[in-house]
Amino acid sequence: MIKSEMRLSKAVFAICAFLSWANTSTLGQPVKTGSSGHGKRVALTINYQPVAVLRARGGSSASERVEVALRRLAGLARSGRAVHFSAGRGSGGWAVMANGGVIIVAGSSDAKPMKMKRRSLARRWASAFARAWSLPLLTLNEGSTTVPAGAVRSLRIGGVGRGAIKVAVEPSGIVSPRLKGGAISLRGVTPGHGYLTVRRDGAMVTRAFRVMKWAGAAHLVGLEVTGSAVPRDLLATLIGTEASRGARLEPGAFAVMESLPILPQVWTRGSTLRSSLGVRMAGPGYLPVATRIPLEFYRRALPPAPKVELFYSNHPESVDAPQILFRHAIGRSTSARLLYHHQNAAKGPLIFAVDLRNLGDRAARVQIVDAAADPAVDTVYVGHQAAFKFFKRTKAGAGIIVTVPAHGRRRLFDRRVGEGETASGIIVVRPLGGGSLSLTTMAEAVDDKTPGSGAKKEADTVWMAPDLKVDAAYTVGGEWTYIPIGQQPVSNGAGLKLDGNYGVLYTVRLRLVNPTATRSSVKVFFEPRAGEARAAMLVEGSLRETGRAIPPAEVPMATFTLAPHQTRTVTLVTMPAAGGSYPAALIVHA
Q: Which residues contact 89 (CB under 8 A, 6 or more apart)?
């Protein structure tokens, strides 16, 4: 028998038992040793794992042999050095060795019941000692923990410890911890940094954590439109101006669009349309958010529109410097149809813009029908494109409904216009309640977007109820019918005449009569009379347009077939388009 395996007094055993709880390994991880069993067999355990079963040997009982092993293991734990277990042969026979010293000898009384040789048993024990010694009593998820304010994050508790778990947070109030089963949940309370400490069986693990706010949150955005056929570009434009309401950002945070919403080419069915916009919200000191803003479109039906006022922004037509071009209030019970047409005559680009302002103390709800053309050098073409788009939008009633806050502003048009290019468009603004509205067109400098100095007074280029209704007739076999467009200028209360009647809607009720006994075709032509022009026209609700026309051209617009002795009334709607030369005429003949 190895001499060190001597009988220990009860006092020495008590000291070893205490050290088995209080010692610390070389890695700072406590090692819990102990024993179980009674009588002839006692199991030695390390970190709750049985590593050897000892029996009486020589003059030592099984319990006494375990006491010796416990004392030696406690000494190893206190040494502060790495511990290496192996099987070796000493003066007492084959034993479990640690750092050159004997821990326990594998005797014949231990090996025979296992039907093993003492050398094999010592090796098995040494392997079990090494494996159990390295097992941690307590572990937590690796790395620091970031907890969103108001959210919960969990840390899984691991290790072989079996004692009570104690949790502490420093400083208090940043998170609210909760221990449940084998996990700790941390609910973020207020932004800040702190430490979580967990103790079990003498082992302690500390994890740094921080609580951060999300950069923002996504909320449903309700969008209102009108019309039986709402085009995708109108829906996309509305999203571009309104979707930011769905990103509730923290101070200093920002949102970036990451994916486009899925939209129909033309929305024609149903009163509700749902989509979403992918965004990423981020900012210094905040947790980034990748989410989608839910969008819901509502199709609204409006009663017939009230009378319209024509706002004509064309003076000066050639703009050579930043300045306010037009400004006028919108009546509470009238719609404003703004026609703007300005050419950039400056030496460099300008920003042409249209602002809708609410000068009142109440929010204003308005319908907007926007027919803006892309700026172009061809002034006739760009004016025609605005008129064509206007007819396309008004035919379907396609518009948007928005709210302009009290003393707020909404930009309806904002485009960089190059030197020599023309900005042209038609915008209809219909008040639906609240506020005191005003429309302004302006040219701004590209660098600071500042209009020219000085305030422009209310413009006088405004015409109340300018639209004209024309009744005309044609009889097959009779003289041709000529319908002038833009020949008789409308005038306003200030006595100002609108040469060419640009922006005035002509609704022509054309009565066609075929008194003959044969089928006959009647044709309608567009005739430019003052110079180059292009025409857009609704023919019985069907949208038509011409290409470039120069006098004395006669461009066919429509053909109607009349049965023998048939009388038929058709409706034609047209408008002198900005940039073209008017007056012009419609010619009707068989």
A: 95, 119
Alpha-carbon distance of 196 to 386, in angstroms, equals 66
Q: Is the dihedral of CA 286, 287, 292, 298 positive or negative?
A: negative
DSSP SS3 for 252: coil
- Please, which residues have CB within 8 angstroms of residue 480's CB and are 6 or more apart in sequence? 474, 587, 588, 589
Hey, what's the torsion of the CAs at 248, 252, 257, 262, to 10 degrees? 0
Q: Which of 4, 127, 123 is nearest to 64 (CA)?
A: 4
CA distance 486 to 475: 24
Is residue 493 classed exposed, middle or buried when 0-12, 13-18 and 19+ CB atoms within 10 A define those classes? exposed
Q: What is the pLDDT of residue 449?
A: 64
* Distances in whole angstroms, Cα of residue 507 to Cα of each of 485, 541, 577: 11, 12, 15
pTM higher than 0.85 for the full model?
no
141 phi and psi, to 5 degrees? -50, 140
Q: Which residues have a Cβ under 8 Å from the Cβ of 55 and sit 6 or more positions away?
A: 40, 41, 62, 107, 109, 110, 113
**Residue indicated by tokens 């806050």:** 405
What CA–CA distance (Å, rounded) separates 257 from 266? Answer: 23
The whole-angstrom separation of Cα 459 and Cα 462 is: 7
| φ, ψ at 521 (rounded to 5°) | -105, 130
Dump pLDDT digits (tens) for 482-500: 999 999 999 998 889 999 9
Measured CA to CA, the distance from residue 17 to residue 21 in angstroms comes to 7
Per-residue pLDDT reduced to its tens digit, 279-334 = 999 999 999 999 999 999 999 999 988 899 999 999 999 999 999 999 999 998 89
Contact 188, 148 (CB under 8 A): yes
149 confidence band (pLDDT: 50, 70, 90)? very high
Q: CB burial class (10 A; 0-12, 13-18, 19+) of residue 225?
A: buried
Tell me the H-state helices in 310-468: 379-396
Per-residue pLDDT of 561-585, as tens digits, reads 999 999 999 999 999 999 999 999 9
Bridge partners for 520 per DSSP: 562
What's the CA gap between 243 and 220, in Å, rounded?
A: 9
| Residues 6 or more apart whose Cβ sits within 8 Å of residue 568 | 511, 512, 560, 562
Of the candidates 464, 425, 189, 146, the one whose C-alpha atom is nearest the C-alpha of residue 310 is 464
Greatest Cα-to-Cα distance within the chain, rounded to the nearest angstrom: 142
Residues facing 282 on adjacent strands? 254
DSSP alpha helix (H) spans, 105-173: 108-111, 118-134
Cα-only R_g, the chain:
45
